[in-house]
Amino acid sequence: MYKGKTVLVTGGTGSFGHYIVKELMRKDPAEIRIFSRDEKKQDDMRYKYRHMDNLRFIIGDVRNSESLMNAVRGSDMIFHAAALKQVPSCEYNVHEAVLTNIIGGKNVIDCAIEENVEKVIAVSTDKAVKPVNTMGMTKALQEKLMIWANLNKNGCRTVFAAVRYGNVVGSRGSVVPLFKKQIEEGGPLTITDPEMTRFILTLEQAVKLVFKAAEEAVGGEIFVMKIPSVKIGNLADVMLSSVPESLRPDVKISGIRPGEKIDEVLVSEEEAFRTIDMGDYYCILPAVDIPVVRERYRDVPFVNITEYTSGNTERYSDENMVRLLDSEGWMPTVRSIMVKRGLSEDDTSLRSINRNRIIREMETL
């Protein structure tokens, strides 16, 4: 599917786009084009993969159709990961979110159609479902544009589809890196609401869905991975469990930020009526009639769910959450705390930690 092809990744220096690029390297494309407006990250990435001769770095912005067209020209596939995705930033910069997430998405569509690109897979978010914030609203409209494009492509071959995902562990602005940073620096550890739930998945899981969508999409679908969730309060407790009491920061309940919800939604009640079960993931079919979609899924039964939310899905156990965070390198350690706080082995606090550890081990024996 990718061998010998030219693949463009918009937002290719972001955490999500970067991982897509890493996976593409294993699939032997002729050229991987990394399109973003971050010169420093492009330079860092160019150095990191200096042994790869099929990477092409292009400075530009999806808001600018001319610079985008230069990147799209001659491409076979596009993974559209460029976005403004921080909820508070979008709330205070609404126009900027519109320009990047909506106008930028439309520019991708126009360029893909003009160049007769084979497939475009847009990366969306659970916040696009029943949106209450600017980021979610702009992403919801981007999804609508991707579906609409399949009906308005002037006879070209391009297939447009999207994927939705939840909170990716380690992505910029997500809760796990924030908690780790606050714990290591001495706090306070700020929790918006302990009862708030979030879908949690790894970058590997999220990108796996992106490539699955690229393989399966016929035009207009939204692919949603089935993933567990966690309560934010439990997540904080799990991350604090690796920290000795004498080094644990104070915990502060900060309250819900502008545009946040208690539970996130990946499939709404309205969408459930046109959602099919594909094993590890759901596939939401478009509300508008697209003949190729109707034909492809003619005999596939719809799911028996009313809504798929982080409040009613399976929950991570504490053990599984520790395992996931540890495997991804996001569990705080005494060593990382020492480095961040400028402590040494001779510090009284660390001697106290060692003494407490010895006492606990003796009690166990």
Q: How would you characterize this protein structure?
A:
The structure is a single chain. The chain is an alpha/beta fold and 365 residues long. 41% of the residues lie in helices and 17% in strands. It contains 14 helices and 16 strands. The protein has helices at 15-25, 39-48, 65-72, 87-92, 94-114, 134-149, 175-185, 203-216, 232-240, 269-272, 291-296, 318-327, 334-341, 348-364; strands at residues 6-10, 31-36, 55-59, 77-80, 119-123, 159-164, 167-168, 189-191, 197-201, 222-225, 229-231, 251-253, 265-267, 275-277, 281-284, 308-309. The radius of gyration is 22 Å and the shape is globular. Residues 357-362 have low confidence and may be disordered.
